[in-house]
Input
Amino acid sequence: MNDFGKCAAAAAFACAILGAPVASAQDAALATAGQDTLGDLLARDQVAIGWFVPARTAEAAAKAGADPRMDFVFFNMEAVESYKPAEMQAFIEGMRPVPGGRRQTAPPLMARIPVFHDDPAAARLRTSEVVRAGAQAVVFPGMETAEEAQQALDAVRVAASGRAVASVFIVESELGVANARAITRLRPSVAIPGPGTLRRVYQGDMVKVEHAIQVQLAACKEFDVPCGITANASDVATRVAEGFRVIIIYDRDYDATIDVARGLAGRAPRPAPPTPAEPESAIELWNRGATAFGVFVPDERPRVAGDSPAAGDAAAPLYTREGAARLGANPLYDYLFLNLEGRYDASAIRTVVAGLGPSMAAPRKTLIVRIPPIAADGVDAARARVAEALRLGADGVALPHIRSVDDARQAVGFFTDAGGNVWSRANPNGTTLAMLMIEDADTLAQAAAIADVGGYSVLACGIGSLTRSLNGDRAAAERGTQAILAETKRVKAVNMLTATTQDVESRVQQGFDALLAIGPDPDAVIAKARPQARR
Output
């Protein structure tokens, strides 16, 4: 390719990526941070290297937002049933880099939509939707003719509405390969032969597959269009040497391939992303001002039709060492909440502690046990249960339905009597968690006075119980929750609250220090919130 051709091709792609207003803001930030944009790389005839996103999860988005080696991400919505632009938009939001991290801006996103010629009207609508949702490039799979290619380019032009958005064509059928020159002559931003689909098309005949790949590469070189391809550690050297300038790496090969690809492309290796931090206990997280996430220890008892927790002795919750061990191995959880409020059972504490393993594990999950309220069986019973739970290995005890300042003082005294070194921000070397819960309408007026008692770790609102106490008035319960949150901020105590996928991000923003994930998929709740909490 002559110098004029290189400039022409690079300019076309750079304008497509960099001309959009969102990307322009990125350019400015990247310029000051020394981080190349996709257009910068191609303008210098460099190789751009990106990641084929394996899942639409918060973890994947956070990885993309943290890794400085990624030049772009490839987001796949080719199957009609998987076309969900709202999920793509959430993924883009989740790629926001952590302040002070090695990336200053999120990588641009290429969105692959369903095949254009299967439903051109729908494809035009989808093009507009993904551009509106934040995609900086639209990927058109299965391109077969120049007419289809022109329709796709026109769809991008209309969707961009005066901005420039990249168009990426994938040629992956016999008809598409036959028309590779006619398709590429129309100058998409990038053209890609699809090895996986071509392998199926040619029934595993890799000689034919490779011939098709080289036909598309030749067309790209002829018309000065950057050519892309998927690659792994075993073939990336060959692909870079052949002249492919956009390399897409699958997740299974990512770490083994990306630095090799960067070196082969003549790009100085950037530092690898930081290794994941060692797990931290809830106390360690709170000592450094971070949000801790936890889950209820689930009842493992098999349910049968008509069975319910209120069905007598047969409905006693079941906890197993194996179940506790699984919870202890889940990296999303910082603490576990064992709810024995309705049925105190010391053997359940023993079982969960045994399943979690020794406290010197790296580190063992923080275990908080909720016992029945003081009013249920009296002060002596509550005091004995606090002492027993701590002796059996619990890291903390939660006392529900604190109804007065006297209740709060008595509860704090239980921990003193048990010899616990209660952690608080005033005593950061403490090892025992004392948790008090306000969850009755009549107690809300005493929230400030209870907060001032001191000597405890966590002051929380039981929003579910409070709502019932307020005869189902959710708005009033929310006001009560926020009032208790304000008191905990005033006295610098931790505030814990349950959260769902619908509200967990807002709870992080509001400043809750501990969130207890509930709902059908607690892991999804935590995964959604961790980027918001910068974790």
